[in-house]
Amino acid sequence: MEINPNDVSQKENHLLLDSIVCPRPIFFVSTLNKQNIVNLAPYSMSTIASTSPAMVCFSVALRPNGEEKDTLANIRETGEFVVNTVTAEILDDVLIAAGDYNPGISELEYVNLSTLPSVTIAPPRVKESPVHLECKLHQIVELGAHSLIIGRIQLYHIADEVYSGDDVDTAKLNIIGRMRKSSFVRTSDVFSNENLWKLYHGS
Ligand SMILES: Cc1cc2nc3c(=O)[nH]c(=O)nc-3n(C[C@H](O)[C@H](O)[C@H](O)COP(=O)(O)O)c2cc1C
Q: I want to staple 124 with a disulfide (CB 3.0 to 4.6 A). Which of 6, 23, 115, 140 is the partner?
């Protein structure tokens, strides 16, 4: 099968890419609007943008009616956001937060999650996530129906029990990844590859 992306609709491209580029991490993004209402929403078109400087990025689609999602509107207004990691324990609440709510109502009203203040930016962190990235907007790259948000990390918050000394011990996190449509993946079948270890460490 060969498919030219220019010959198919946005929906078909979405279905293809959603099933080809997976598993993907889920960024649970917290922002504030001008009225200081906390917005929470998951974004899985997301990854590292750079390690020097430390940057992450995620892609926000327009709503079907052509309006901007609250996360994008808030980041345009305030230039700040927090990326909270998604573990199996909070997945149900994260999916509730993905609902289409009026911008005047915080998703916090609907989920069983609480917040902690951030240190360098105004939007709060999600307490139940073990890792938070406090980010300031670096750039928004407009890509047709999507806006790619690139943020520079101001501060990493890593729960002491998952910090290994130089990274995050992912075996201690019940991280969830996004697969196609409504499917997800657990990270309970992790393996190490000796050849890669030798490539990096010599023997
Ligand atoms: C697991 C998951 C991942 C998602 N990833 C994205 C994404 O990468 N880009 C996007 O535009 N919407 C994504 N969505 C949909 C948004 O979360 C949804 O449109 C949400 O209502 C946006 O909220 P907001 O208007 O508060 O920003 C995702 C939904 C789920 C459940």
A: 115
